[in-house]
Amino acid sequence: MALKYAAIKVELRQVELKNMPIELINISPKSTVPVLQLDDKKIIDESWDIVKWALLQNDPDNWLGINNQYLPEVEKLVEKNDYSFKKNLDFYKYANRFPEHSEEYYRNACEIFIGQLELMLSDKDFLLSKNMTLADIAVFPFVRQFSMVNIKHFRQSSYIRVQRWLERLINTPIFQEAFTKHPTWKTGNVEVYL
Fold first, then answer.
1. Which of 20, 50, 159, 187 has its CA 20 to 30 A from that of 62?
2. pLDDT tens-digit profile of 22-47?
């Protein structure tokens, strides 16, 4: 979404994680996705670093705020997201692989973060501002995953503001365009651009 928003033309190469192409392994020994190879051959292989790089190239709607004012607060939010919520989310999504606790236990652990987001949305439509910022884009894909584990429970939950916020973001043209499915890339395929 950040690359699309920043109007940075990139060639997309949709890969299968079970069958990583050698071209990916050659540029990123970590063999994780996403990976962004810049024209100067520099590699950025962390999604958060790709997002920040893209917005520092072009930020037309000021997602970073004036003089990047939102960045410190967003970094804290992303840290919570990545180091506690995402870990709990993986347990929740795959509760059958982690029988030490119930799905409900893992969901409750996730809801600590969801509850914090609900409070952040108590007086505005987006997490940090009345307008969309980097915070919204950084966190919402994971909240979307959370909602999809048990959509019925999520829709019946008391997180009304989070539900509205998530729906608003899912319905943005930028999300619809950025999350289009593409065929798996193979050497020699016709190039596909974002």
1. 159
2. 888 888 878 788 899 999 989 998 88
User: What's the CA gap between 112 and 134, in Å, rounded?
Assistant: 21
Domains plus CATH for the chain?
2-62+179-193 (3.40.30), 69-175 (1.20.1050.10)
Q: How, if at all, do strands 11-12 and 36-37 pair?
A: unpaired
DSSP reduced 3-state for 12: strand
Record the pTM.
0.87
At 183, which amino acid appears? P
Query: In DSSP terms, which residues pair with 43 in a beta bridge?
Result: 37
CA distance 56 to 49: 11
- Rounded to whole angstroms, what are the CA distances from 154 to 81, 110, 179? 18, 12, 22
